[in-house]
Amino acid sequence: MKSTKYSTFCLSIFEKLFSRFKKDEDLETRNLPFVRANIELSYEEYFSTALMNFIFGLIISIIFTALLYVLIPNDFTLFLLFFIPFIVAIGSVGSYIYYPSYKIKARGKNIDLFLPYAINFISSMAVAGISPAEIFQTLSTVSVYGEVQLEAKKIAKEITVMGTDNITALKHAIEFSPSRKLKSFLQGIIGTIQAGSDLHLYLNTIANKYMDDDLVDRKKDLDLLAIIAEVLVLAVIAFPILLVIILTVMGFFGGSMDMSLQMLLLFSFLVLPAIYGMFYFMVSSTSIERLTKLKLDKKITINEFYELNKAPIFILMISWIFIVILFVLLQVLAYFDYLTINSYLYWDFAFLSFLIFIGPIGIFSYLKLKKKKEMQYRFPDFLTEVGNSLSTGMNIFEAVKTAEKGNYGRLNPEIKQMKTQLSWNVSMKNVLFDFAYRMKTAIVNRIVIAIDKGLLMGGNTPKIFKAASHEVDQVNQLEYQRRSAMSVYALVIVVCYFVFLAIILILNTTIYTEFFAIQEKQAELAGGAIPLNIVDATMLKYTLYTFVFVQSLGAGLLSGFMMDGKLSAGIRYSVILGIITIFVFKLLI
Questions:
Q1: Separation of alpha carbons 241 and 499, rounded Å
Q2: Contact of 445 with 117, CB cutoff 8 Å
Q3: Cα–Cα distance between 412 and 396 in angstroms, integer?
Q4: Could you read off the pLDDT of 108-166 as tens digits, one per residue?
């Protein structure tokens, strides 16, 4: 959050008000949370903006509810006249008070997440005797370590621009940092410098320690994902089964079946997708997802986007063509009276078209993801061999040429291309960035940038490659553990879907069949003593059809996403389950 014309205007209005309560001795203490939260506003400017927004929100809510009461004068709108302004006031004040604390915690977590990898990076440069000032200056230019970069920028700026000595700058960083781990790390650097010890030895030791701690923390994330998976089974599998049984049975007896079916359709099209979206957000907000998420440093143009996604765009165009052909075919068959066009036929067409649309692109994306994963799993072996070759005195071209002879599976063609580029006198920097461009994964992108910066700073080249190998290997371990742990829950979700489908089949062949038989003979049975509603059997079938189809899509997508962290990994499950749903409802129900 930065200063704007609006926040400056708010300060000019309320500055005198805040000056009455201003105490110079408390100024630094009051501004400390804003510095830790990276809110580039003073205490007075921040709360002046908060007070102005509180007043505007209160006035607007009062005017709105007052007009509503004038138009619809009743007890409910009178209640809203007092309730909404109260909620707006509490929400506005509470959000501004809570926001700095939230930002401090969020920044602290982000720093703790990337700090082990940042230390692993700078430890490889310290071998060459680089000073702390140069280390943090380099780290401040690396954009792949999240909030660690911002903290490094502050340290580098204080040393190089303000002329502060290393110890003082590090002490200031400790005071203002929101991360406990970063404070401990910087304090260790201060102790090492003051004791005259080997900085590289300290960095190497703390890098190994923090990497081990990070592995433990990420395992806790897996436990969190397991809990999310268990709640998911209850929320979108077990509960919908009860909902279907209760609403349909109540619809037959005494209640309104139309209302029951409308509620099921509402649940299918709105509630279920919202629940699946909520679980997607919960899973994607875990540390594992943030660690493996690729962020682009710049916005790409439409032409660049097209060049990057030629194959997916082509596949989507082909899918659309098939959908159009299918639609035209239906119209032709209807024209020659081979079938009758009605709303239910369009229902089938919509479901089938959706599978045609997501199926090919999803399978293509998954195969591409699988190939990248296989290459990423072998990448640490390649980096280690290059590092070992460099340790023997080889140059980088000879090291890559030696590595080409090894067996790295799907990574071999990439290594061969690297060797070819180097033989054409292409710089190692461009070779690495070309490889990262083709891979498009967060860890490879981060490693390539780290290697490039390390080589530029003149660090120990073999150690740089071995440190990079260790980092990639750790991420690979995390992804492997995630897949192993989540595959069980993915299987449970898929099995629960089949249980759900089986229950629908049992209901259809037992209870529903009996209900429709009684419905046909209602006038003769018990003199109408059992009041049954007249139910459209086809409408009931397609309502349940919709419900199960949405379940199949959501269950497939989320189970694949939980295992691999990509929605494309779940599309293949969704397509298979969707086809099974169509088959069951068209042929067995």
A1: 9
A2: no
A3: 17
A4: 888 888 888 888 877 776 665 677 788 888 788 877 788 888 888 888 888 888 888 88
